[in-house]
Please model this.
Amino acid sequence: MNNYLKDYLLYLADTSLILSQRNSEWCGHGPILEQDIAITNISLDLLGQSRNFYQYAATLIGDNATEDTLAYLRTEREFKNCLIAEQPKGDWAQTILRQFFLSAYQYLVYEKLQAYNNEQLAAIAAKALKEVTYHLRWSSEWVIRLGDGTEESRQRMLQATNELWRYTGEFFITVDYEKEMNIDVADLKIEWMKTVRAIFEEATLPIPDNTFMQTGGKKGIHTENLGFILAEMQYLQRTFPGANW
Model:
């Protein structure tokens, strides 16, 4: 069971870390100062969540593993993040929509995990849920603002939906480590769709139909984007092994 728990913790940690890294690309480049600060704070929240999951995973792995070795010394095939997290940040609409899709999913996952029969995992999920509640509210408001805004903002949201919807199906495909832990993410799809549909209706955006879903990230099969993210994120540690502050 520990191996499956370790893999599940890495999946949760990797998804938050890679999304944090992507969002951090907006630091100093946000459309207005207030939202620049907001997206940066969300990045820090996600980083903190990933640290908690990595620290727990490190205790299960042993062999001198730490949160740093798990973040900086693993290769693309060892990362288990959802594919949507690693996609290019794109414009503000694409960043907002990705955050909304993932926050709506993470909210359901953490809500479920806070009642899981593992006290440490449940405690981490309960803390993360408080932060994700804000992330979901913030991104929902922006989806509505852009979708039901100007013609340009609406077109950008439609383009973002076209780019990102294909990666949402992966949320609800239960992989082996989730099955072994009796975590069935497939049953979250109905509630996720309710949330998305309600916000999309208010934003006057259509829900895509019959989109082919891209999957594989949860099993370590990624797009080329992850390699570029890790090359930047892991550069210092790989250039100067063992470097620390």
Summary: The chain has a mean pLDDT of 94. The CA atoms of residues 209 and 224 lie 26 Å apart. The first helix runs from residue 2 to 24.
